[in-house]
Amino acid sequence: xxxxxxxxxxxxxxxxxxxxxxxxxxxxxxxxxxxxxxxxxxxxxxxxxxxxxxxxxxxxxxxxxxxxxxxxxxxxxxxxxxxxxxxxxxxxxxxxxxxxxxxxxxxxxxxxxxxxxxxxxxxxxxxxxxxxxxxxxxxxxxxxxxxxxxxxxxxxxxxxxxxxxxxxxxxxxxxxxxxxxxxxxxxxxxxxxxxxxxxxxxxxxxxxxxxxxxxxxxxxxxxxxx
Length: 226
Fold this sequence. Notes:
Layout: E1 3-15, E2 21-33, H1 40-106, H2 121-133, H3 148-154, E3 158-160, E4 168-171, E5 183-190, E6 196-200, E7 211-215, E8 221-225
Antiparallel strand pairs: 1-2, 3-8, 4-5, 4-8, 5-6, 6-7
């Protein structure tokens, strides 16, 4: 009896563990012996195997696409969140600066009383300045003697390196006999060489008495006027 043998090759793409494609070859044999063919069950089994093999790459591809989509959406949301936080911080910083500016603008440039403790040098400088000019200094916080120069500038008072009669002299810490908190006094007289004679309290052996001290312009020395 004459035998016919037919061989067909099916090439199926398949994923490998390194995420690349390989080709799997299935050899399908159809053997006819007279009028007899291989059983239909074998053909159906082969077709089912082929369909399952083809389905696997499609399933993996869909999973990869979905995963990438989720990652992209997450990154976009993270970027938006960071942008909102940066804008919020910037707006808060601007609001703080505006509040501070408004607070300084609403503060009076002169004080209404002498609130410094007696007999500190700051009490005497404020009291004596009011006697000469009719106004008290306006700053009440951050008001140690060494801070008076910066506070005067913030309140719009004049600050100079050159002495003038009736000005407040401000010595920084450890300058010309001042201690760690600095020292303030009031200029009573200006000499031709630029040095001054200033009235002080809390200077010398008796802190309750007014002392007259000779000071010189120089590093760490400023003069304050309204």
